Here is the input.
Amino acid sequence: MGINRSETLAVNLHGQYEFYMQLIPELLDSMD
Here is the structure.
């Protein structure tokens, strides 16, 4: 169960990372 949990966490972190990498440039553009 620990392995499945850590794999799920890694997938979630990777998904959030890609999400923020797309979101941050838009936020920076809107700050100008």
The two ends are 47 Å apart (CA to CA). The chain has a mean pLDDT of 88. Residues 16 and 23 are 10 Å apart (CA to CA). The chain has one helix and no strands.
